Amino acid sequence: MALNISAGDHVLDLCAAPGAKLCMILDLLGDSGSVTGVDVARHRLAACRTMLQKYSLGDRCRLFVADGVTFSLIPAGSCSDSKPCESDLTEKVDIFKEWTSRRTWKERKKARKSGPPQLVSRSQPPELIYYGRHSGVVGLTKEDLYKIVSDREIMSSGYNKVLVDAECTHDGSVKHIQKFEHWGWKTLQRRVLDAERTDNLHVLQLSLLTNGFRLLKVGGSLVYSTCSLTVAQNEDVIEQFLKENASAELQEIDAARSWPCKGGRVEKTWRFDPLTSQTSGLFVAKFTKLAI
Ligand SMILES: C[S@@+](CC[C@H](N)C(=O)[O-])C[C@H]1O[C@@H](n2cnc3c(N)ncnc32)[C@H](O)[C@@H]1O
């Protein structure tokens, strides 16, 4: 809702898995535009793919296992010279055809059981694990799809909307805490409170926000959100980001006027908490990219 999705938007969801918001965006988008979902955790993004297929929502979506800090691909087909012309299509044999799963469900289930969940490294190229028929991928060559464009070109060919629903400590997520009944309370330390992980989270959050903003076209909107209540992962991150990015401007979230939430420490940012909103804790900020 904060992103104000409109018909024809090309949307980037930089921390997409397991995909609740991605599915909602696809639903709002209807039969135009596209959604690119990126996540560093293969097993979580695979769950997102399953959901897209189960609910037949993935027609305009493509999913990449990749590090959102370095992901650099613009919407498929939006670069002026990246779409092959008709005569090219007949000659090229390595074009993407309609997506089919190369592995059976049984094989994928076996692979899931075979080892601990893997995260991709920053230097690994993005791995396309799903694309829908109208995602812009069908008909492209690998070269077209993986073409890296300059920051200048991104200004006009980047995404209209970007969501950075960043990795965080989840301390605001009451529902998440309840999951420890199932996971075992002994795992709370490792999953939520591990100092090594939490100490560096704000660096990751700022890097994800910075890269998401880089991939936004001029005039587009980016929403940064977390399910943490800490200032360090919310207001501090966006203040640092604004200091480093002169073309970023905080935007009003019109819908927030009717939301049961309260303003954050920084004007135009919003906080939800169990007392005020009777929801889990959540922080939302919206930026636009100025042409400077
Ligand atoms: C709060 S969850 C996203 C929830 C998702 N937006 C939804 O609505 O279902 C944060 C996600 O960020 C992913 N993540 C962590 N580090 C990342 C990175 N460097 N690049 C991309 N994704 C990352 C995690 O794997 C996790 O799935």
TrEMBL record:
GO annotation (BP), single: RNA methylation
SUPFAM superfamilies: S-adenosyl-L-methionine-dependent methyltransferases (SSF53335)
UniProt superkingdom: Eukaryota
Keyword field contains tRNA processing: no
Keyword S-adenosyl-L-methionine among record annotations: yes
Entry-linked Pfam families: Methyltr_RsmB-F (PF01189)
One Gene Ontology term of the molecular function aspect: RNA binding
Segments forming domain SAM-dependent MTase RsmB/NOP-type: 1-290
Record keywords, A-Z: Methyltransferase, RNA-binding, S-adenosyl-L-methionine, Transferase
Binding site for S-adenosyl-L-methionine: D39, D67, D165
Active site positions, chain numbering: C227
Gene3D superfamilies: Vaccinia Virus protein VP39
Family as reported in the entry's similarity comment: Belongs to the class I-like SAM-binding methyltransferase superfamily. RsmB/NOP family.
Protein name per the record: Putative NOL1/NOP2/sun family RNA methylase
Organism expressing this protein natively: Senna tora
